[in-house]
Structures are given as structure tokens and as C-alpha cells.
Amino acid sequence: MTIRYPRPLHPGDRVGVTSPSSGVPEVLRARLDMAVGAVEAAGYEVVVGRCMVGATHVSAPAAERAAELTGMLTDPSIRAVVPPWGGETGIDLLPLLDFEAIGRAEPTWVVGYSDMSTLITPLTLRTGIATVHGNSLMETPYRPPEGLLSWLDVVAAPQGRPFTQSPPGRYRATGRDDWIGDPGVRDLTLDTEGAWTRLDGAGEVDVAGRLVGGCVETLANLAGTPYLDTGGFAGSDPLLVYVEACEDNAFSICRQLHGMRLAGFFDRAAAVLVGRTRAPGSPTLTQHEAVLDALGPLGVPVVADVECGHVPPYLPLVNGARGRVVHTAVRSQIVQTLD
């Protein structure tokens, strides 16, 4: 399978906004407007879809959400699609998406994380179209800290030119911003020092491969199905697999990762990146220990506390991109190249 990259966005391009999973409650509409304004301020025209209602856990019936997402991805005038955030049951779209039509269309960037992993990772694996695991629309107004990029930077990056991200050394350990009381907040609160952590042993890491991954709690439900089959992905290239936990306890994450490994998702992994998490451990199993219990048998470097999950700040990763991960005592970084 050849990886296909959507062309870089240019000023004046159209960005579609739809909620393939959860919509936006009325009390957060001011934040949504602020986020749309941030995309417009970057030079793009924003097209907001009909599937945006936040009255329940889904923005619309599954058939309507699937049709709107497919329509945006096959509309040549829309160059990127971004949801407000994730949700809970986006998995119900998978049998309804027209992967053949999407694969035939000119590639369009799709951005998101959390429940959006249920859609963007299968989209890349089934069609070869690169997707962005990165901060969603409601987080777009935040200014990235030094060393990191926004999804807006990634979708405008020239194809073939490497871009590098490095951890800023700080993250948010507790709390979250009040988007109802302060919908215009743009500064991330990074209240705790923290660096990447190698879990499988000591020594320096310098490894390359094709990036693929997402949220453990959502991807684990696809293990063993055609939607998470990495067998023919990117030819025989080694993979840099990244995973991150949202909220499940360490026992659940351990079981889910074991299941994904047994289903073959990590078979070609040259290394595994693990997102920093606030998810709870237990007195006998921490989140780090859960990962190592499940993925230690792979015999590859496992680097944790990467900024690719639900804990701010956000390090966007491109499913399908060539990546190189370096982690030493003095330097941690990931270089991505869209080729």
C-alpha cells in the first residue's frame, strides 16, 4: 500500500467541521465559535456541517454522521476535516463509511484523537490516506508550547520536508479549563515538569518507521477486524506504533494492549510510543507497568509519557508518515516526513 498525503493547505482553502461522534452542547457554543475563528484567522474558510448537536452522546443518527463525513471527504473543495472533539461511539460509523469512494477521491486531511482514533486509523489502514492524530477543533485556539506544533502547522507542511517536535518538559497534571466561563482561553496551563520515559530498559533510542496508532480504549475494540489490520500497511516498512490511554484503569489497559498484541497490531513495531495519561493505576499495577506487561514481550523500545494523548500539551502525529524517534539522556524528539 502506498501512503498518499493530502496536499498542504493554502490560505483560502476550505476546512470542514463535523462531529462523527459527539456534538457540542449549547453551553459550549461560545468556545466552538472561538475555535472556528482560530481556523479562520489562519487563513481558511470554515464550513460547519449539520451533525453538530450536543444534546446526547452522538451528534446525529449514525447514517447521517457517516454521510456527512463521507461527503466532506469526497468534496474536492474541502481540504481538511476536523471534529470539535472525540466522543464515545464513533465505531458505529465504520460499516457505513464508503471507503471505496473516499479512497478514489483526492485525499483530504482528517484530524482528531480520542474516539476519532476509531475512524482515522482505519481510514489510513484501509485507503492509504494519511491522517493526523492531533488536537481537535475545540483545542485549536491554544498556543502550542515551544517545541510542539498545532494540527494547523501539520496540514500546511510541505510534502517531503521533515518537521521536528520535542517535548517542552512540562504538562498539565490536574484540572482543565472552564470553557463555559472563559471560552476564549488560549494559554495552556502546564503545571508540572515531565519528560519522556523509557520503560523497557536503559540506553539510547534511535529508531525509524511508519507511524500508526491511536487511543487504546477505542482501537482495542477493532483488534482482529479488517479495520485495524496492519498486515499490508506501508509495504514491509517497520512501524512506529503509538498508543495512549484516556481513562481506563491499569488492569483494563493491560488487557486491551494484550489483546491488540495477540491480534497482530504490534507485529511490525520497531518501537512503541506511549502517551502520557492521567488514567488510574492500582496498588499492584501502574499504567507504566500495564504497558510493559503487555508490550514488553515485543522486545522493542517502549517510550512513555509522550505528548500524544489526552494530557496537554499536544504533539500531533501523522498516521502513515515516516518517523524517526530519538530519546537520549540529553535529547528527545520525533521527526516526521510526509513521503
List the helices and strands and how they pair.
Elements lengths: L13 E4 L11 H13 L3 E4 L13 H12 L4 E5 L16 H6 L4 E4 L4 H11 L3 E3 L17 H5 L7 E3 L4 E2 L20 E2 L3 E2 L6 E11 H4 L19 E6 L5 H13 L6 E7 L11 H9 L6 E5 L10 E3 L2 E6 L4 E6 L2
Parallel strand pairs: 1-2, 1-3, 3-4, 4-5, 10-11, 11-12, 12-13
Antiparallel strand pairs: 5-14, 6-16, 7-8, 9-13, 10-15, 15-16
Helix pairs in contact: 7-8
What tags apply to this protein structure?
339 residues; 8-stranded mixed β-sheet; 8 helices; 22% strand
Tell me what the structure shows.
By secondary structure, the chain is an alpha/beta fold. Helix content is 22%, strand content 22%. It has eight helices and 16 strands. The strands form three sheets. Strands 6-16-15-10-11-12-13-9 form an eight-stranded mixed beta sheet. It is globular. The mean pLDDT is 97.
Short note summarizing the structure:
The protein has eight helices and 16 strands.
Q: Find the count of extended strands (DSSP E, 2+ residues).
A: 16
Structural class: alpha/beta
Mean pLDDT: 97
Enumerate the strands of the largest sheet in spatial order, edge to edge or round the barrel. Answer: 6-16-15-10-11-12-13-9
Enumerate how many helices there are, as a single number: 8
> Which band does the percent of strand residues land in?
15-25%
Q: Please estimate the helix content.
A: 10-25%
End-to-end distance, in Å? 13 Å
Poorly predicted runs are none
Largest sheet: 8 strands, mixed
Shape: globular
Radius of gyration: 18 Å
Order of helices and strands: EHEHEHEHEHEEEEEHEHEHEEEE
